[in-house]
Design brief:
The protein is α/β, with parallel strands linked by helices. It folds into 2 domains: 144 residues, Rossmann fold, CATH 3.40.50; 219 residues, Glycerate kinase, domain 2 (Alpha-Beta Complex), CATH 3.90.1510. It is 39% helix and 19% strand. The chain has 16 helices and 13 strands. The protein has a 6-stranded mixed beta sheet with strand order 3-4-5-6-9-10, sandwiched between helices. It has a 5-stranded parallel beta sheet with strand order 2-1-11-12-13, with helices on both faces.
């Protein structure tokens, strides 16, 4: 595995997986891989660290690095109350939009695609302000809404009205009637807070590669709903531009989370940062890599998409840059050894191979098979 120390049982192993989507959370995956490491190398020193691309899993990453878990009740994407977890690390709050406004909280369809709101995420930001946060990280992945962050801003005190001066209803569809954006009532504490938007993709607010066209269908929108949401977001962008002087349609990243990125930038000056960069800072990843003799990354499917820079491969690249060898454990491995090597990963093993079938690997015993894959991988690489 690349170093004299790594050939002894006393090596220091950093286990740093993303979630195994649909099977194991980030902490569950980290624990399973760590169990496999300890079974193969009983004397190893093992640290567990969750990584993420800035969307779902960002809070778990902050918690794995010592953040304090917080809970709040917030408005769900369709108006029902939901219980949402966020993290407080010092005076930095880490919030996932998906916790209160996520697609997993709805049964996607045409009606929900038009009605879903980001309001609950605004309520989580209020909870963070109440807790004394002076820096807020908002992970943008997994949203149910295409409302440009309108509901979120309304929760923070913005007044969004139609031509008659009546507040428009929540949801992206209602933005077609928007006549006035009044930001005078926004919570004054926002002016003293750094708001960072973390995401793993860049897309504009409008157009063929924008929030409605690309992501609307994933949220239940058919062609008619996509067209309506595109028109609604166009109105939203125009009204925000009039109110703030910032053009949300000009950003190459404004379409993230149904346009929430564009709305927050225009209204409060929020800045965008690649998700892994944010998570690396929250988790002190550079220091963790300096400690380690070996890094084990992981995710549900290690495939061609992973090689485009998803969290596990990005971590592998950082480890390689400081001379630390990297192995990978995944639910399934869909790329060859050469591609892995070019990405900085010396070898990989899959739970599917260890279990003998994808059904077993993804079933109730998923953690066991991930542990077994890690154990066998280390024994093979010693």
């Amino acid at each position: 595995m690349g170093t004299d120390r790594a050939r002894s049982d006393g090596l220091r192993v950093l286990v740093a997986p993303d979630k195994f989507k649909g099977t194991l959370t980030g902490p569950q995956a980290a624990r399973a891989i760590a169990d496999g490491v300890r079974a193969a190398l009983p004397q190893a020193q093992v640290r567990e660290l969750v990584v993420a691309d800035g969307g779902e899993g960002t809070v778990e990453a902050a918690l794995s690095a010592g953040g304090e878990p917080r809970m709040a009740t917030a408005t769900g994407p369709l108006g029902d109350p939901v219980s949402a977890r966020w993290a407080l690390a010092g005076r930095t709050a880490v919030i996932e939009l998906a916790a209160a406004s996520g697609l997993q909280l709805v049964d996607p369809g045409p009606a929900s695609a038009l009605a879903a709101t980001s309001r609950g995420t605004g309520e989580l930001i209020l909870a963070a302000l109440d807790a004394g946060a002076d820096s807020i990280v908002l992970g943008l992945g997994g949203s149910a809404c295409t409302d440009g962050g309108a509901g979120l801003l309304a929760a923070l005190g913005a007044r969004l009205t139609d031509a008659e001066g009546v507040s428009i209803p929540d949801g992206g569809g209602g933005l077609t009637d928007l006549a006035t954006v009044d930001l005078a009532g926004l919570d004054a504490r926002l002016a003293q807070v750094t708001l960072t938007l973390a995401a793993d993709v860049r897309s504009p607010l409008l157009g063929a590669s924008g929030a409605a066209a690309v992501f609307g269908p994933q949220k239940g929108a058919g062609p008619a709903e996509v067209d309506l949401l595109e028109r609604a977001l166009s109105v939203w962008a125009r009204r925000l531009h009039e109110a703030t002087g910032r053009d949300p349609a000009a950003l190459d990243w404004g379409g993230a989370a149904g346009g929430t990125a564009a709305g927050l930038h225009a209204a409060v000056g929020a800045r965008f940062e690649a998700g892994l960069e944010v998570v690396a800072r929250l988790t002190d990843l550079a220091d963790q890599l300096r400690w380690a003799d070996l890094v084990i990354v992981g995710e549900g499917s290690l495939d061609e998409q992973s090689l485009q820079g998803k969290a596990p491969v990005a971590v592998a690249g950082r480890a390689r840059a400081v001379g630390v060898p990297v192995l990978a454990v995944a639910g399934r491995v869909g790329v060859d050894r050469q591609a892995l090597s070019e990405a900085g990963i010396e070898a990989a093993a899959s739970a599917t191979e260890a279990a003998g079938s994808s059904e077993l690997a993804q079933g109730a015993g998923a953690a066991h098979w991930v542990s077994e894959a890690a154990r066998l991988l280390l024994l093979r690489c010693r």
